[in-house]
Amino acid sequence: TLCAIFEGVDGNNTIMAILLLICTLLLCSNISAQQPISFEEAVSIMLENNKSITSTRHSIEAARLEQRATEGLRWPHIDIHGGYLYLQKDIEVMLGGAKGAVTESVERLINGGISAGIITPDAASLIDNALSPLLGADWGYTLQKQSLGGISATLEMPIYAGGRINIANRGAKLETEATNITLETLEGELIVTLVERYFGVVLAEALYDVEVEAMQSVERHLHDAKALYDEGMVPRSVVLYVEYKLSEARRSVTAAENRVTMSHLALKSLLGINYEIKPIVKLFVYNNIYNINYFIDNAYNLNPIIREANIGKQLANEGVKLARAALLPEVVALGAASIYNYQLSNLAPRWAVGIGINLTIFDGLGKERRYMAAKVNEAAVNDMVESAKSDISLLVEKEYFELINAKQNIESSRYSITFAEKYYNSIYEGFVEGIASASDIIDASVELSAAKVKYLNAAYDYCISLVKLLNASGIAYTFVNYLNNGESVDIN
Question: Is the pLDDT of residue 187 over 90?
Fold first, then answer.
């Protein structure tokens, strides 16, 4: 290749040839330092390094924890309460007024007993002495001291909630499933982007080879033109024309090299790496594509958009049930017990159990209207699901026929290359024999290169259409299977 670069180069183009040699050496050096990478390896690296994937995985874990938290609604709620109070004064009961009445009654009974001869004076003296301490005491009682505190536990166990707990658990499960679908959606989109960039590098490198091959062909024509000019068979203008075409070919090679560099940068950015890589998988075509109904059926069952819409439909249905459950009473079992107390009155109970019922009789018809709104929202979501199915079905059909068109373009381009090669060889023989002109052979060379470019672009379009079709069908992950069982597309 390096020898061919200088073939037919005169003094005027020496600098251009040297620059091209340097670029070629740098490119070869860069390629030798590149790490080979298969498509499967690229997928693994991308999914490991992509921050959006990492963020969505964290969201999935958060949704799972929320689901587990919702499951706790079925269990009793036990709370610990503690506190300290300092009252204005002790709570007391004073019976001083009753003591006077009791004293008078006792004296009347004793005196009456003595008068009636029932009680002797000595017995009356003994009774009086026995009752004197009681009647002389302070008839007051402290129900609760001024300072008190304690620690207690309360328990609340749901008995009947109108289905609210079951609805909450089903909703949390659906939310977790929706987060998983979000991850699948993101992975499918990233696989599509990876196919575009991975095979974009493959295409760019193949087109670079085509441009280099075209440039070398023009260099050979220039060598032949100069030889014919030296023999007097063609005028000087033929040599100048071929030199002009050679300069254009060199510019095309430089542009192709820049495209290779940019495609590598785009792929490295997607993979999140900073080292050089070289894709080792070629463009391919898979000849046994299933019928379109296969992809439509998969889309209805696996497409993330339709699955998310179906989850939205289920959530709307749960919303209707929740609004209806709000019209029903709540029944809970209640319990409380004292764990520790400080100067709490002995009259206060130390435990209690019971049942609580909560039922809203009238709230301005708010619950009834929310129930009606939930029913309307459910109908709207149902329409959205049907619309999503229609849109995805249309998308699958579009990608399917684009895939078929790309396959047909590959086949027609393959025949075009065969005819272009035969035409070029015949023109080249005519040019050497002096029958065909320089412009004829240059045109034939351009047509051959154009046929190869069209062939490569058709193969690239096929790969892109295939992964988009699979992604629309919800099975983007199967692209690797088609790749491993496909037929490589190569111009050599």
Answer: yes
Q: What is the pLDDT of residues 128-143, one digit of tens each?
A: 677 666 666 666 668 7
CA 319 centroid distance within chain: 24
Phi/psi-derived region of residue 474, left when phi > 0, alpha when psi is between -120 and 50, beta in every other case:
left
- SS3 track for 189-224: HHHHHHHHHHHHHHHHHHHHHHHHHHHHHHHHHHHH
Residue 30's SS3 state is: helix
Beta bridge partners of 80: 153
Note whether 471 and 191 are within 8 A (CB).
yes
Alpha carbon distance 168, 165 (integer Å): 5
Tokens of 464: 């892109």
Residue 338's DSSP bridge partners are 152
State the DSSP string of 323-361: HHHTTS-EEEEEEEEEEEEES--TTS-SEEEEEEEE--S
Average pLDDT over residues 284-311: 93
CA-closest candidate to residue 470, choices 233, 270, 294: 294
Query: What whole-number distance in Å separates Cα of residue 57 and Cα of residue 74?
Result: 28
Q: Inform me whether the pLDDT recorded for 3 exceeds 50.
A: no
Phi, psi dihedrals of residue 352, rounded to the nearest 5°: -160, 145
DSSP output for 227-273? HHHHTTSS-HHHHHHHHHHHHHHHHHHHHHHHHHHHHHHHHHHHHT-
Query: Rounded distance, CA 54 to CA 47, Å?
Result: 8
What would the pLDDT profile of 30-78 be if each residue is shown by its tens digit?
A: 444 679 999 999 999 999 998 889 899 999 999 999 989 888 888 888 9
Long-range contacts of 400-404 (CB under 8 A, 24+ apart): 400/292, 400/295, 400/469, 402/461, 402/465, 402/468, 402/469, 403/289, 403/462, 403/465, 403/466, 403/469, 404/289
For the chain, count helices (H), then strands (E). Answer: 13, 10
What does the alpha-carbon distance between residue 37 and residue 277 come to, in Å, rounded to a whole number?
6
Cβ proximity of 398 and 471 under 8 Å: no
Per-residue pLDDT, averaged over 368-397, amounts to 91
How would DSSP label each residue in 261-311? HHHHHHHHHHHT--S-EEE-PPPEE-S-PPPHHHHHHHHHHH-HHHHHHHH
